[in-house]
Amino acid sequence: MKFTLVTVAGFATVANAFSNSAFMGKTSITQAAKSTSQLDMKYKVAVVGGGPSGACAAEIFAQEKGIETVMFERKLDNAKPCGGAIPLCMVGEFKIPETVVDRKVRRMNLVSPNGVEVDIGSTLQADEYIGMCRREIMDKYLRDRAIEYGAECIQALVTNIDVPADHKTNDKSRYTISYSEFKEGSAAGVPGSMEVDLIIGADGANSRVAKAMDAGQYNFAIAFQERIKISDEKMAFYEEMAEMYVGDDVSPDFYGWVFPKYDHVGVGTGTVVNRPAIKQYQKAIRDRAGDKIAGGKIIKVEAHPIPEHYRPRRIQGRMCLVGDAAGYVTKCSGEGIYFAAKSGRMAAEEIVKLMEGGTRLPTQEDMEKTYLAKYDKAYGPTYAVLDILQKVFYSNNGAREAFVELCNSKYVQQVTFDSYLYKRVQGNNPLDDLKLLGETIGCLIKGYANAKPDAVFSNPVESQKRL
Ligand SMILES: Cc1cc2nc3c(=O)[nH]c(=O)nc-3n(C[C@H](O)[C@H](O)[C@H](O)COP(=O)(O)OP(=O)(O)OC[C@H]3O[C@@H](n4cnc5c(N)ncnc54)[C@H](O)[C@@H]3O)c2cc1C
User: Fold this and answer.
1) Which of 182, 226, 311, 340 can bridge 52 by disulfide, Cβ–Cβ 3.0-4.6 Å?
2) Span 395-444, pLDDT tens digits
3) Comparing C-alpha atoms, which of 307, 349, 304, 302 is closest to residue 325?
4) What confidence tens digit (pLDDT) does each residue in 4-30 have?
């Protein structure tokens, strides 16, 4: 039986009637009614989006018997445009099988605007690597696992969410989700609607849940990627190798990449400050990779926004954002898969605890004090540091030359890999830190002296919009 407003109101009326009546003391009927209602009723949680954040949230809710979990995914074979790089800790923490990881990258070739190349990776242990995945494979695996745990998955586009005016104060008010369900042979889809008690917005950068709850805007990068099938001989170079190119030709504020996948490479770039020129930057990254991808066949072209920072509001009433919908992508690296999975799992774990076996609904304040506080404490400093690094090292060619030179340092490589692979900074040495500061200043001076000046572009609208 579904937990409807009518049944809640009905039981509340019955309970009130008895508590105010001459039957006070003879509580057995009230208790019987209550316990029957608790057995029958289940609060319904809707997870909108079946990417890493949604799937990892849904699998936690689904394991709680007192909660009914529904996951909406508009396209079950969705291939999210993405480089697909994941840190080693995600493989263990989220029990991702090796079959989901296409390539284990153990070396990174970092290329400066002047073409100086630095080979990164010698500090890695034999069992350490960056995982390279195809999102259509990884997302399906995570989603299927949530379904195995008991989540109901509906292949449908959520088109509207009706938010009741009293949703922050009345835990009996429910959200109405309207959707268009995929049906074989029907181009338009079949319309449907559902009432739910709590919504997890895991629907990515163009989140409809964020819009419905008035979460506010964030600035975003546009990222572009071509999947290019290259010959086996050329693919051999990328066996365990990924490449990162920096320079104003490939991006005025980000980097271009060549990431190896199962039988092809993903070649891409991104920018916030000059989005209209994205195709020009994409051509430049293809040119910079040059002979290494020459003769390759473009098998897929994809583009998608990447959020630059958190949404102004991540929870409203019983609507809660995770992953890209919340804005959890780091600057500098553009990493978001791990943070999506982690935030989905963390939000769900905290909410399940607050729901006490499905006997109550959490308030906005409950969720802010648990999920948000915990997430911000764990990852706030990471976002802040990477934001500063991006501002210092990606803003002009002089700084980019300095960045590449600094990455020659084994100490920098060690600290960078430790923080990326394990999401923690370990083994820092104050003396080395001091030496590093000196080296940074030296590299910046040298970089500025030797760098080619950045090309001037005029895009005041987007440059100034940057927050
Ligand atoms: C080109 C590019 C390269 C990137 N490279 C990397 C990388 O190498 N490593 C990394 O860590 N991060 C990378 N990122 C970032 C990463 O892709 C995201 O941070 C991550 O996918 C966020 O996961 P998510 O589950 O929050 O959202 P998404 O992965 O966007 O998933 C949202 C899901 O919701 C579904 N959906 C959306 N709207 C609706 C709706 N109305 N109804 C029903 N379903 C809906 C979508 O179909 C999708 O499956 C890259 C991003 C881009 C664009």
Assistant:
1) 340
2) 899 999 999 999 999 988 988 888 899 987 555 677 777 777 777 777 77
3) 307
4) 333 333 333 323 332 333 333 333 333
Cα 388 to Cα 466: distance, rounded to the nearest angstrom: 14
How many domains is the chain built from? 2
The answer to whether the CB of 157 is under 6 A from ligand 1 is yes
72 and 150 inside one domain: yes
Could you count the other beta carbons within 10 Å of the beta carbon of residue 211?
16
Supply the CATH number for residue 246's domain: 3.30.9.10
Q: Ligand 1 pocket test: which of 70, 82, 89, 279 has the largest number of ligand atoms within 8 Å of its C-beta?
A: 82
Q: Does 120 share its domain with 224? A: yes
Amino acid letter for position 371: Y
CATH number at residue 191: 3.50.50.60
State the Rg of the chain over Cα.
Answer: 25
Range of the structural domain that residue 66 is part of: 42-77+138-215+312-382
Cα(457)–Cα(391) distance, rounded to whole angstroms?
A: 18
Coil vs helix vs strand at 376:
helix
Pocket test of ligand 1: the residue of 91, 155, 159, 324 to mutate, having most ligand atoms within 8 Å of its CB, is 324
Name beta bridge partners: 320. Answer: 200, 315
